[in-house]
Amino acid sequence: MTRVVLLGSSPGPDTAPTGLRLAALPGNPTVGERLRGQILSLDPQPATIEPHDVAAALRALADVAESATDNLLILPANSVIHDELIYQITKAKRGALALVAKEPRPDNGEDAQEDSAADTVPIDEAEPEIGDRTLEGLPVRARAGKSRIVSVGTATIAVTRPNTVLLGPLHIKVQHMPVLAETCRELADLAGSFGPDDDLAQLVAFGLVRKGVSVGIRGRRDLFFRRVSTQEEANEAGAEMAGMNEDRARLDNAVKGADGFFTTYFVSTYSRFIARWAARRGLTPNQVTLISILLGVAAAACFATGQRPWMVAGGVLIYFAFVFDCVDGQVARYARKFGVLGAWLDATFDRFKEYVVFAGLAVGWVVSGNGDDIWILALAALGLQSVRHLLDFSFGISNRRKPPAQLPTLALDAPDDRKLRKDLEQRKIERSQGIRGLLKMWTKAGRYRAVHWARKMVVFPIGERFAAIAITAALFDARVTFITLVAWGTVAAAYTLTGRLMRSLA
């Protein structure tokens, strides 16, 4: 269960802004009623903290952090937010995550020329400043990079070239609770130095970043979030939210974003719609997994005949076995039905389908009168793939045990972030040398689309393996299939093993 902290007044029909009505939404709920209903499944008794007395609010948040035994979600009480956005924030893998909006850059006119002139000064030479611009009513006092917050300022503490506002929601995992509690108490002692426009969520992020916690960033993308203070703002928020397709965003989120080339372009383009259809009719992920298993066994049976029409049929069946292998995970993410049994079944029977197809191909080759030497290739393909799975599993376990790299820290009362940025630059230089430098260069090369997909394909993921089996078995024969699997699998094993050795030594 996630512990929830609401920043603001308790809900009530006569309390602004939580008592504002969202007339455009079903049931005409108040802001507070709707938010309470949304977080009920996370925390039936959320803590409410009044942010007007900053010192008291920070100490109250420290008390919550000290008693928390699970992750913590901080939300402004006047938030109008999609359910799916709450879900995505709380399920993020980052140890700490903030919902942000980056300041748009001018793209024409006089403002663009001024902005361009300002950017002629490199970021590492720019002077820290007190952010006086606002975005959505919040001060622009944070600097964000591509994936995390680099620095945060306040009304009295300068930050180098701020470009981001923290919208309010913060998700902090349980391992950071001791740091959060300590940080909030130290911030409370400095409360007199903060300004009236310093937002409480911004101050928490400010403290965490200076304590060396990596605070990731997430934008709203195709989902909605806004803080409302007047009925007019509530009306606008409700109307805008009602006009957005939350279900489509949820469906898109059900598809993993890091899939291989074949899965991305030949399966996920339509499998999500099968997943939604299945979920709406009550099919569970485990039932979809069973369909995938049956299709895999049927494909193996077709291959075992050794006859060309049945080989083609087997290629089609193994393709759809993989489609439904993707659909079961998408159903789980779309319907939010997760379980240990389902995860075990999915991982185990992926291997089962693959290996039973190997057997079917070998049997088909033998019954066609081609000799039984095919079993050597079949065993080579099976053994190679088994070793790869073992290495994947062992590396994943050891990598999870590896402590995260420590970020530089800075005293909370330091007047600007120059020292922090200098330390970050030094860290960047150190991490750009030796093996780390080579890994970083290879990572940067992934910005090019061709390199990105080449790296995805060279590791021979399950989508590419099933595609290779389907195409070579349907068009050629089992020998070609096994030679393809062994050759490509060997290249993939060498590539992944080299990369993992380098990462282990870096």
Strand content: 5-15%
- Main β-sheet description: 6 strands, mixed
The value of Rg in angstroms is: 27 Å
Helix content: 55-70%
Helices, by number, come to 19
Indicate how many domains the architecture comprises. Answer: 2
Which secondary structure elements does this structure contain, and how are they paired or packed?
Layout: E1 3-7, H1 31-39, E2 47-49, H2 54-67, E3 72-76, E4 79-81, H3 83-90, E5 96-102, H4 109-118, E6 128-129, E7 134-135, E8 138-139, E9 142-144, E10 149-152, E11 159-160, E12 164-172, H5 177-189, H6 200-210, E13 215-218, E14 225-227, H7 231-242, H8 246-253, H9 261-266, H10 268-280, H11 285-303, H12 308-335, H13 340-367, H14 374-401, H15 418-430, H16 434-445, H17 449-458, H18 462-475, H19 478-505
Fold and architecture overview:
The chain has 506 residues and is α/β, with parallel strands linked by helices. The chain has 19 helices and 14 strands. A hairpin with a 4-residue loop joins strand 9 and strand 10. Helix 11 runs antiparallel to helix 12 and helix 11 runs parallel beside helix 13. About 2% of the residues have low confidence.
Short description:
This protein has 506 residues and is of the alpha/beta class. 56% of the residues lie in helices and 11% in strands.
Keywords:
506 residues, alpha/beta, Spore Coat Polysaccharide Biosynthesis Protein SpsA, Chain A, Four Helix Bundle (Hemerythrin (Met), subunit A), 2 domains, 6-stranded mixed beta sheet, two-stranded antiparallel sheet, 19 helices, 11% strand, globular, transferase, CDP-OH_PTrfase_TM_dom, transmembrane helix
